[in-house]
Design goal:
This protein is α/β, with parallel strands linked by helices. It is 40% helix and 21% strand. An eight-stranded mixed β-sheet has the order 5-1-8-9-10-11-12-13.
Amino acid sequence: MSQHKTAVLAVGNAIVDVLAQVDDAFLQQHGMAKAHMTLIDAARAEAIYAAMPAAKVRMSGGSAANTAAGIAMLGGSVRFVGRLRDDELGQAFSQDIRKIGVAFDTLPATDGPATARCLILVTPDAQRTMNTYLGACAEMTPDDIDANAVAEAKVTYLEGYLWDQPRAKEAMRKAMRLTHEAGGKVAMTLSDAFCVERHRAEFLHLVEHNIDILFANESEITALYQSKDFDGALQHVRQHVEVAALTRSEKGSVIIAGQSVHIIDAVPGVSVVDTTGAGDLYAAGFLHGYTQHFDLHACGRLGSLCAAEVISHVGARPQIALKPFVQQARQA
């Protein structure tokens, strides 16, 4: 893989996050499924935004984009592909992600739906309930996947949420094919248990035939295999991918590679404020370590350190320098 100029090419939804802290009654009042992501239309997005508390935090987000941002902050070379509109939110997203150090050159659309936004409600137990208006994200097509950019990357990282859009699904298939043709690795996150329920058969096929590195949390991996427990799902996935990095919240994470099992403890002493972006930053740490040839335990440790940082405050992007974690992960 010596010809690769970029560590990771991340493909996902370019979304601006709008976060607010609410109580459980707010979720019930608006008919929201707690701790899940729900796709909504423009009218519903406007209604929820109007009902949200005045104290809102706005920042660039999107699952794969958060992972790309984390990799850049760790010192890795990373490129992001995602669709947005040439509007205020689109400009804010572009400026934010480039300022962090992510290469981003997808041209904004000059017409069509507005830039996507995710309305995130954080309850006192730190769980986040997401309502996502995909907007311009839904316009991603295979033309957005540049063969040269794919060939230059060691790993192409895809978010499962993209599978909800037919043309984006084609784009993901193209990215997978080009990655393997160029000798790279395909990594994918299952994104959300509801997303898995919507696409189980297709996701199972991808896991068995197209994905080298799989990221999932406990609810996602058990949903994929319709397993009653985590250990049952673990036995299935180890047969299908080269590496599976499975997160378990306060139980830490488990990394499977064939017959090899690495158990990574959660970082102790973390005050959990908002779990938004935890999985995204875990993937960032893991992929940075992986592309730098760390052993799998160190990859998982770096993922845990990055995830612990992001859950300690509101928002899905780190608020402190991540580079010190790199050495810390290797010494553990």
